[in-house]
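Need tokens for this chain, all 343 residues.
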Amino acid sequence: MLVSVYIPFLVTATLAVLAPPAARRLPPRPAAWALACAALVTAAGWAGSLALLAFTGLAQIPQIAAEGRWSVSALRSEDPVYFVVAAGSTLALAAGLVALGVAAVRQGRHLVRARRECAELPGRTELAVLDDDAPLAFALPGAPGRIVVSRGMLRCLGADEREALLAHERAHLRGRHHVFQSVWRLTAALNPLLRPVAVAGNFVLERWADEEAAERVGDRTVVAHAVGRAALASVGAPRSAALAVTGGAVPQRVRALLAPPPVRRSLPLLAGGLLLVVCCASLANAASDSDRMLDSAQWALCTTRTGTATPAPTGQDQGQGRDHGPDGCCGGHDRPERGEQRF
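Here are the structure tokens for all 343 residues:
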């Protein structure tokens, strides 16, 4: 546990630095899935490691040790974690869980508001045209989702560019990109180190929609012109929190559309997957070490109460060491009398 419990922190920091630039060079669809998986796994590893570190401090509180029936002195002798680290981990975990709860409430309200706006839009078709001179274009998730475009935006674009804009927004709805956004917002709330991943994820979603629009229209240049003109027309217009064609870093998106489609690369995805496996394995190893440490502390309390010096159980005996007798000791592990066999 001394080393393995800290590996998820290192993996999270590594992915937070390396994943965003790598994702921008990958095809956007697999990049979005890779960033979502990385955010979920590293957020879980982050919270799990903090919980294990926090527990080493809480477990040494006499009242908690009495309820768990383990020896505080034995736990302290085996525990390699300083109390300051345990206390800091407790505060960090509590702050992360509170932030996660607040973000979940906000995200839930955002989705409910989007569905309500979908229901209030005129007409029942996928496209809703607003009689507004302000250049607006965005997708609202719902059941089903709707594409909202203002007359001001339509006047700014040519016929082919309008088709590209609609294909872009349709790709957001078809790919359920709001789910990816929710994952990145919630994991970044739990683990602040994942905020660069969330920013890169939003850019990748726009690139995903750009590439699908280019496939539908059949001309990458037309989509690039549509994105650029829509962004220029939207300068000074009210920004929407919904998925919009003007979202993300527009100059980089236009530059990517004017270049050939991104080449598939397997090495970054394999390297990222290996890091996630290391994160999960190290967390499992730390949890196993913590369980063994508690078994040893429980056994130490048992031997102290019975006055014996029986060695601590190992292997399969560890799971049995938690069967306490009526006096709170591990009655299932008393030594057999001479001539008696135990199976």
